[in-house]
Design brief:
Blueprint (H helix, E strand, L loop, with lengths): L8 E2 L1 H13 L2 E9 L4 E9 L7 E5 L6 H17 L5 E5 L7 H8 L1
Parallel strand pairs: 1-3, 4-5
Antiparallel strand pairs: 2-3
């Protein structure tokens, strides 16, 4: 299991679904979630059968989150990213305007 220095553990399903996205382009997106009670990152939601060309990693951490949640998120994010080889573009967002369509388009090129 993970500790506070290394972040949350990453559930095997996260890696499996990401490999399906990367190799087979099976999903339009995957939403991963930190499940604090289980002390691990899990797959929360999938949407499939949509063509895509770039793999974005969006780190969403709103400014109004609890300090403890922000600390867990920060320590887990880097560990989680290392598990997902193939991310092409990374965005850090604290507000919805930081991940609008115009931002995606500008970063996709």
């Amino acid at each position: 299991m993970a500790n506070s220095a290394s972040g949350m553990a990453v559930h095997d399903d996260c890696k499996l679904k990401f490999l399906e996205l990367k190799a087979k382009r099976a999903y339009r997106y995957i939403i991963f979630k930190i499940e604090e009670n289980q002390k691990q990152v899990i797959v929360e939601k999938l949407e499939g059968n949509v063509p895509k060309s770039r793999i974005f990693f969006i780190a969403w951490s709103p400014d109004n989150s609890r300090v403890r949640s922000k600390m867990i998120y920060a320590s887990s994010k880097d560990r989680f990213k290392r598990e997902l080889d193939g991310i092409q573009v990374e965005l850090q967002a604290t507000d919805p305007t930081e991940m609008g369509l115009d931002v995606f388009k500008s970063r996709a090129n």
